[in-house]
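Morning F.,

Quick status update on the modeling queue. The single chain you submitted on Monday has been processed. Sequence for confirmation:
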Amino acid sequence: MNQKLINAVEKQLQPDNKEEFLNILRDVVRDGADAGFHGFIYTNETVKFYLKNRKLIRAELSELADDMGNGIFKIVQSFGCLTDRRTNKSDYSEEEIAQTLFGKPSGVDPQIANALAWFALEEVARYLTEEG
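Structure tokens below.
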């Protein structure tokens, strides 16, 4: 886990201290990022977070893909917030995901960027609560 990504998540959450930060992360692990955590609630703030940290998020996603033996596009397509609950299929194509991951910032899909910001939050939470 990249320390810069951990720092970025902590800065976005704005905890008062390290103990509060770890408590928030435990809540994220228990409830999921979509439960609503400061800095990760509104799409405008998650898109901004994603754009500022997209290289770090891509690196974390690539590492997960390597560990799982799966492609990064398939992993992103499997995110629950990007999946049609009736069909259990992604609402987004690999091309749309690739545009958000590797394209110009102006071409970023807000829902995919939101999902990737939540991914970063949840990965940091899992890492620090398991390591902690």
